[in-house]
Amino acid sequence: MFNYTFHWNQALRALPQMLDGALVTLEIALLSMAIGLACAMVLTLFRLSGNRVLSGFAAVWVEVARNTPALFQIYMAHFGLGNFGIHLSPYAALLAGIAFNNAGYLAENFRGALKAIPDTQARAGRSLGMSSLQAFRYIVMPQMLRIAFLPATNQMVWAILMTSLGVTVGMNTDLAGITQELNARSFRTFEFFALAAVIYYVIAKAVTLAARAFASRMFRY
Amino acid sequence: MIEIENVRKSFGALEVLKGIDLTVSKGEVVTVIGGSGSGKSTLLTCINGLEPIDSGRITLDGTDVHAKGTDLNKLRSKVGIVFQQWNAFPHLTVLENVMLAPRKVLGLAKDRAEEIAVKQLTHVGLAEKLSVYPNRMSGGQQQRMAIARALAMSPEYMLFDEVTSALDPMLVGEVLDTLRMLASEGMTMICVTHEMKFAREVSDRVAFFHQGVMAEIASPEQLFDAPQHVETQKFLAATH
Lengths: 221, 240
Prior knowledge:
- Chain A has a single domain (8-215), classed as MetI-like fold (Orthogonal Bundle), CATH 1.10.3720.10.
- Helix content of chain A is 80%, strand content 0%.
- Chain A is built from 9 helices and no strands.
- The longest helix of chain A has 34 residues, at 15-48.
- Chain B is 38% helix and 25% strand.
- Chain B has 9 helices and 10 strands.
- Chain B has helices at 40-47, 72-76, 94-104, 110-123, 139-151, 169-184, 196-202, 220-225, 230-239, and strands at 2-11, 14-24, 29-34, 55-60, 63-64, 79-82, 157-161, 188-192, 205-210, 213-218.
- Chain A binds chain B through residues 118, 120-121, 123-131, 134, 138-139, 142-143, 146, 219-221, and chain B through 48, 50, 73-77, 80-81, 83, 85, 87, 89-91, 100-101, 104-105, 133-135, 146, 149-150, 153.
């Protein structure tokens, strides 16, 4: 076991290439988060709409996103849709899969946050002459976002880590994909993956800290 | 003028308003007293259309509140209501709380809305608190802010639903003083209250509600000193 000789130099030489991959990873995570947030907001409105078709659609989305493996969701976006003639590139499939997953979790997160806001808040808005949409937009939503913010940063970290599942659909430009290719060429598995893990850790930690700093500036009450 | 004609309202099997008739003229202050569950608060939320009614009619300056096609948002901007729980918007400063509806409902420009908000907040004695968040204030201050928030819409009518009931006894006075000031300025008001001394002082007329019925309505002197209805007598005997 201990006659293995580490070759860290080889891994460190590949560092610039891996950092390029890290940028792609971060890009996918951020995009998937932006799309996920937008979809989650729509799903939340669907659930509140009182329309059975819309709320049913939202419920199915949330159930599937939260109770099936993220890997399958990405697989479905790439190979599953491929069966129907819809061909997404590895990048698009990975992004779609993670965005789908994010939306499900974030919608549930929003629902919990909404429950924490008393009905009397919207009622107070209505009694001032606001429409129900205005009361939601100016009174309920800002409070909801505040409550949902920190749990949502967890989802952001999770999104960063989920991007590594892209290797299974042939993604080769993100951090996991590049690491996997370097590994396949050199068999220096430990060195490359350890270095990649450190980079993932740094990105995830940086995002968490940035989110906390943002929250303390934004939510001052 | 607020005209309430034979209004009935049930929550499930429980009939909370059993045919209420009441007319409140411009500039008049009517207080409503009575035990819990007598329908007093429900009547207020029916007046501004927050609660639907089962039958009867409520009109505000001739507009039927519950008719189809009535623009309730527009109507509510004419009728301010303040609740027992003041419902401060916690994510907005005191100034922003008061500016929100004038900006979004009346569509006023920011500086105009701010001017109105500052004026109303000064009026209720909160000029020092403009940039404070509500959770940093006492219940009495938050309730005065809620009053200023309603007044910023320049309502023609104000409805007060037990606005001092959730307050520490020490803080009741400052809120009642605000209501007294409004009454003396000629605001048309309906106040549901448990503060008998206040009711006697500010009211043009006092109504006594009992089990969904307006058992008696009279001048404060008449109602408090020589109540006619047996339930009014019992109620006043119990509260004195």
